[in-house]
């Protein structure tokens, strides 16, 4: 059971943009890592774009399960995990991250923010904290 990506996005008008993200691509071949990370960023933006405000969904994409939560205020979170990772835990994590993010980052920064301009550093910690350690890894 693994988490690969945890992203915070803003579903604004007219498009979705990434505010902050954390990735764990350590299980992939060194030469695949950047393209895997690009795929996860693109997929996170795409499923957020296709999700309605105030909705939650789990979408299968290749061998991954993407869990998306779009709040009514346009703030969205996406977790990309393997098929075995519990859905309930993913949505609990998304709730926690989006609540904390909205308290620490001004709502005025969401429409124009980017990973370079948003200062919120908790995603990497959450990604490793919620990583399920299986014997032998």
What is the topological layout?
Layout: E1 3-11, E2 16-23, H1 33-49, E3 55-61, E4 64-70, E5 75-82, H2 87-104, H3 123-129
Antiparallel strand pairs: 1-2, 1-5, 3-4, 4-5
Could you explain the architecture of this structure?
There is one protein chain. With 137 residues, the protein is α+β, with helices and mostly antiparallel strands. The chain has one domain (3-130): Beta-Lactamase (2-Layer Sandwich), CATH 3.30.450. It is built from 3 helices and 5 strands; from the N terminus they run E-E-H-E-E-E-H-H. The chain has helices at 33-49, 87-104, 123-129, and strands at 3-11, 16-23, 55-61, 64-70, 75-82. The protein has a 5-stranded antiparallel beta sheet, with helices on both faces. Strand 3 and strand 4 form a beta hairpin. Belongs to the synaptobrevin family. Keywords: Lipoprotein, Membrane, Methylation, Palmitate, Prenylation, Protein transport, Transport. Residues 8-127 form the Longin domain. One of its GO terms (molecular function) is SNAP receptor activity.
Give a brief rundown of this model.
The protein is an alpha+beta fold and 137 residues long. The protein has helices at residues 33-49, 87-104, 123-129, and strands spanning 3-11, 16-23, 55-61, 64-70, 75-82. Helices cover 31% and strands 28% of the residues.
């Amino acid at each position: 059971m693994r988490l690969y990506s945890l992203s915070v996005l803003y579903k604004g008008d007219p498009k979705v943009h990434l505010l902050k993200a954390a990735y764990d691509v350590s299980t992939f071949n060194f030469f695949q890592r950047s393209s895997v990370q690009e795929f996860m960023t693109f997929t996170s933006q795409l499923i957020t774009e296709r999700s309605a405000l105030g909705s939650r969904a789990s979408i299968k994409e290749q061998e991954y399960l993407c869990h998306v939560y779009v709040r009514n205020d346009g703030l969205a979170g996406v977790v990309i995990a393997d098929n075995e990772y519990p859905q309930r835990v993913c949505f609990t994590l998304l709730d926690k991250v989006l609540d904390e993010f909205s308290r620490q980052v001004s709502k005025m920064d969401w429409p124009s923010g980017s990973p370079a301009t948003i200062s919120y550093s908790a995603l990497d910690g959450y990604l490793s904290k919620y990583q399920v350690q299986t014997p032998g890894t």
